[in-house]
Write a structure and sequence with these properties.
107 residues; 39% helix; disordered C terminus; YneQ
Amino acid sequence: MAFGIKRDELREWKREAEEGRIAFITHFWKTEKFPGMTTVTKVGCCDRQKLIEWGKKYGLKPGWIDENEKYPHFDLIGSFQQDILKAENKLWQLERLKKPNKKNQNS
């Protein structure tokens, strides 16, 4: 289950992927498949070959591409997520989810 993203952010991710760019979106995530993981970064591109080549830089295998949706993408979690976001100068996507929101500060 995905949550913690705005529609505009998702639209922008889809637009970038459709344009053949490597697109990143990070959000909260809960799945029984990976207990303890609370966030995921989806790195997508509708140019599958470009996505494969990009993934090779980080040791990502083509078989790891999620192709169940219109937008082929890698799901990055754990150390892959943090290391790749840092290398791509996009660590802010993960860090913004770790900031306490104002509701929690007033509790």
